TrEMBL record:
This is AB hydrolase-1 domain-containing protein. Residues 97-202 form the AB hydrolase-1 domain. One of its GO terms (cellular component) is endoplasmic reticulum membrane. GO terms for biological process: monoacylglycerol catabolic process; phosphatidylserine catabolic process. The keyword Transmembrane helix applies. It comes from Etheostoma spectabile.
Amino acid sequence: MKRAVLFLLVVYASVPVILYLFPWILGHIIFAHFMRFPFFLDLSRPEDVLNHTSNFYLNTEDGVSVGVWHTLPASQWEDAPGRSPEWYRETLGDGRPVFIYLHGNGATRAMTHRVELVKILSAAGYHVLSLDYRGFGDSTGEPSEAGMTSDALYLYHWVKKQSKGGLVCLWGHSLGTGVATNTAVKVQEQGSVVDALILEAPFTTIGEVVANHPVTKMYMFLPGFESLLWSILEKNNIVFANDKNLKTLTSPLLVLHSKDDDIVPYYMGLKLYQISLQTKKEYKTDVQVEMISYSANLGFSHNSIYLDPNLSNVIGALAVSSMASLGSFGGGIFRSVGLTPHTSVAYSVMVLSLENFPVAAMFLITIF
């Protein structure tokens, strides 16, 4: 028993020392790109997990090739079998909105919750492009904040060119929210604005997430440990400052966060929503800024917001607002969703019908 306790104490005490001697380890923990789940899946064969999807690669810079899946709107499934990547690329110009999905840390674009979200967006009538950043999945190179942002920015401009001016939205989840806002800032600095930004389970800064992690909290009382963490992040240029980015971004914004998120605390998403409302006020814009708060009793936690049965309607509302630039629809909207078998919450949303796109129709409906 004494030996076991001594062993645990040694392990506990060694963590700060290891981080100090090998600071690059923290970056590997944050990105977790070495965890290439699901195992034994050939990422060049998306048909194993997704229908009407094409795999292709982009050289985002010298020596870096990133893997991307392009999933068509589900209504086009009959036309997809046997089609070439070139045919898939040309469909991006059909006028339908395009979502670029920027996933969180670890695993690949084939992870179950990522695939399920893509299915929902596809069923709603959208093109979806799922990116594995450099170092993730079958993409080459090593991940870094700057590199991952560069990959996303390259894909964004590539899609914009193919879409012939159509709506292109960024959807970031967890770590991907940092990539999404970084990319949106870059686009804005280049004189344009991202058509819409969806942040699912977003954080304020990566440092604040690390400091709030249950494992990290066990060390926060140690003198100098917190400053060590911030020093390592700074030296490795890992910041992902969503809070800072949203102080300048003027894109339509939707924040999705569940109160039982055990990875990124709910208060961070709420804080980002409040920052965006202030930005909207300061810049005097009419863009839509919205947050949907999910009750803990739904059990969505960090990865399962895709289970919201009304998610496609909410996204449709944002797409309508972005496409039509409806100033009258812009505003600050906060919704709390807590549906259980015994209770129901009714709320109104704008729904975009894409059955006869681009001749889109809008319907104001009430969902129970």
